[in-house]
Amino acid sequence: MDQNNSVSVFILLGLTQDPQRQKMVFSIFLIFYVGTIVGNLLIIVTIKSSKTLGSPMYFFLFYLSCADTCFSTSIAPRLIVDALSAKKEISYNECMTQVFALHLFGGLEILVLVLMAVDRYAAICKPLHYPTIMRRQVCRILIVLAWIGAFIHGTTQIILLLRLPFCGPNLIDHYCCDLQPLLKLACMDTYVINLLFVSNSGALCSCSFMILMISYIVILHSLRNHSSEGRKKALSTCTAHIIVVVLFFGPCIFIYTRPPTTLPIDKMVAVFYTIGTPFLNPLVYTLRNTEVKNSMRRLWHVKIMTE
Length: 307
Hints:
transmembrane; receptor; Rhopdopsin 7-helix transmembrane proteins; three-stranded mixed beta sheet; mainly alpha; 3 strands
């Protein structure tokens, strides 16, 4: 499709054009990105090193942290660097790669969140059958399927995007390459392509969100038959999951389930799921989880004792 393109470089307008605000963007999002990487890597190392965090819930949390790390890395470094750059240029190939990475790891995060909800449903609603339903081999197969599903999602998006010709202008009113801003620049009628995007990304977000909400409603309803202590522990875990789901899926549904239009608020909404959620996930899953906090303390204690 390169022969249809006279654009080899795109220019990202970023979050703001004001020099002072750009410095603020650099500082704020550098802190967010470093916090995201440190927090998620800490969870990854803790789960891999701890013998007490071997349950399916932490198996899936490990992959959620991996997805968060890669998802954030596909967006945040360029946003941080561009905040201090005079020219925020990104080549056509880099732009397409960023779109693919965004949807590959974003799709993986969505599917892992669904698997975590399935795990909590089995643990709370089917406790006697839980060891059989969520045995390690089943969990591995589910994660492989999640990777395959995310790859198919990302590949479908990029194949559709590569069909679009770009002949100018090349100004992307966003801080990263994504579907809606690029559709706006295409030199063709994008109505059908947008419908395909919505049926892919929009359907993935909306259907997954509905599945998650229904599963958590069923879980919360079933907790009335549990003991007070068991109810408190389950509520703590489920509340953390629900917080993450709402913060991630709300903005995604807003962006990917509407006609091909861009709104001034789009960039700020996108910040929530591209930068905010990967940063908040480690906080939500550690501050509200005693087992993870205790494992981190033991790991830190062993580290100090061995030095």
